[in-house]
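Support case: iron/sulfur cluster complex. Customer-provided input:
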Amino acid sequence: MKRQNIRKLFLISAMLLFPITIYYLSPYLIIQGALEGVINGSFIVFAVMLVASIFFGRLFCAYLCPAGGIQECITLVTDKKPKQGWKNNIKYVIWTVWIAGVVVSFLNRSKEISVDFFYMTDHGISIANIYGYIIYYGIILLILMPALVGGKRAFCHYICWMAPFMVIGNKLGRLLHIKQIRLTADKGKCTNCHGCDKACPMSLKVNDKVQAERMEDAECILCGACIGICPKKAIRYQIK
Ligand code: SF4
Ligand code: SF4
Ligand code: SF4
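Agent response - structure generated as follows:
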C-alpha cells in the first residue's frame, strides 16, 4: 500500500478514537489539573510529544493527530490554501499565554503534586456524559471552522496549541546536532512541475525549497506527500 494511503488510514483511526483521546490532548484539563497539583494525561502526552519531536519532527501531525485528520477531510470541500506569514505566529502567542497559565496554576495549586494519567475520565474514556459531547463537538467546530474559512489545515497553521511543542523540540534537536528524520532535495533532478506544491497538505512552497535545497520548515509535518508525488525522486527522507 502506498505511504499516503497508510498515512490516511492512521489519520482516520485517530479521528475515530478522538472521543476517547480528546481529554489527553486538552489544553484546559492541564490547567484544571495544575490547580489541584495533578500532572494529568494531557501533560504527559504533550511532554512525550516535545521529546519525540527532537527525533521525529512533526510526524505526529502527519500520522496520528485527530485534528489533522479532521482538517484533511475538509480538503474534500475546499482546496483553498491558507495564507502563510504573520498569522502563523498566532499559535505561538496562544501557546505562550497558555503555558504561563499552566505554570501559574501549578504555583497556586491547592494540593501536593501527584500524577493521574486518567484524570477526569471514567475508566480512561474521555467522553462519558452529555457535557463531554458538548465539549467534543465544540472542539470539532473549533478545528473545522478555520479549515473551512482559511483553507487546508488552517487550524494547524494559526491556532494549534500542540504544534509549538513539536517545533521547539525539532529545533532543539537540530541545535544539539541530534540525528533526526528530515527531508533532503536534489534540485538537479527537479523539472519544476510543481506537483509537490499541489500535494503538500500544509500548502508549503515545496518547489522553492527544492530549488534552494533547503527543505527545513517549521510548518512541514514530514507527511511525505511531496516525496510520493515527485516523478523525478528529487525529494527524500533522510536521517541525519
Ligand atoms: S498542528 Fe496541531 S492540529 Fe495540526 S496536526 Fe499538528 S498537532 Fe494536530
Ligand atoms: S513539504 Fe512535503 S513532507 Fe512537508 S508537509 Fe509538505 S508535502 Fe509533507
Ligand atoms: S514534484 Fe519533484 S520534479 Fe516536480 S517540482 Fe516538485 S521536486 Fe520538482
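Residues 17 and 129 are 16 Å apart (CA to CA).

Case will auto-close in a few days if no follow-up is received.
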